[in-house]
Amino acid sequence: MRKVYYIYNPKTRTYDRIYPTVRQRALSYLRQLFVGMGLGAGSFILLLWIFGSPSEKDLRTENSRLLSQYAILSSRLDEAEGVMQRLQQRDDNIYRVMMQADPLPDEQRLATANNARYNELMDMANSRLVIHTLQKMDDLEKKIYAQSKSFDEVVGLCKQHDKMLACIPAIQPVSNKNLKQTASGYGMRVDPIYKTVKFHAGMDFSANIGTPVYATGNGRVKQAGWDGLYGNCIIIDHGFGYVTRYAHLNKIEVKVGQNVARGEVIGQVGSTGKSTGPHLHYEVRVKGKIVNPVNYYFMDLNADDYEKMIELAANHGRVFD
């Protein structure tokens, strides 16, 4: 109902009706309109805050679904990482061991983080989860690539396996029938001249001067000539990381650069250089490291002979150099 306003008239002692002007009516209508709009907007905002808009509800649902998918993806990446670790262990401890190759270095397997790429994601919602998942994917991708390259290398080694077996030192450099004794083996020994304990890097085979010395594996002659305390010396590079040395020779029968085969005569036992008697000093190096030659006679010795050779090699008898 429309409101009616009156004003008291003291002269007539009556109430006179007031009729508002057009301007007053317009202002009244506007005031009522704004009050109504404000109440409506406030009610709408309150309802949105309590219940949310349909679009926000959809976004929350979508966000929840994405978080679940990220969690599933992270779990599957963890499973894939476990499979990759088992592949790496099998590669290092079985395949590469069978091919006599070194384990793949850790730095080739580990991924390098692209921090700039991750920093771009810091402003995203749930950035920690997204970045952590992305790091897992990058790490796994790097490891898969490194493992595939490792398998390619192992395949290449398999193709050269027969060649490698022919090159590995595998026989004695002096025939058993020509040996007087195995004078001294690998390890700490008393020097025959200086009478001090020092490391003996190879094995000495005592034999008459002129006894044939054989190449213990296929390879190329790297050195053939006088070599200080070693006297007349031959060094053969067999490839695949194997190198052998034959020292104190009386005669050298090969030249530098010459290819030799396992069992081929390369020189004669002598007593040149720092030597106290006729013998052959024999060394084996694998990838630059001096190793015990006794482990490289497996083609010449049966089980009993091998045990005897180990016993002789471990003795602390006379050293000739």
TrEMBL record:
Looking at the UniProt entry, the stretches that span the membrane are 33-52
Gene Ontology MF: a single term: metalloendopeptidase activity
Entry-linked PANTHER family: LIPOPROTEIN NLPD, PEPTIDASE-RELATED
Q: What is this protein called?
A: M23 family metallopeptidase
Where do the M23ase beta-sheet core domain residues begin and end?
198-293
Q: Which Gene3D superfamilies does the protein's record reference?
A: Glucose Permease (Domain IIA)
Q: Please, which domain of life does this record's source organism belong to?
A: Bacteria
Q: Which UniProt keywords apply?
A: Membrane, Transmembrane, Transmembrane helix
Q: Which InterPro entries match?
A: Cell_wall_metabolism_enzyme (IPR050570), Dup_hybrid_motif (IPR011055), M23ase_b-sheet_dom (IPR016047)
Q: Which Pfam families match?
A: Peptidase_M23 (PF01551)
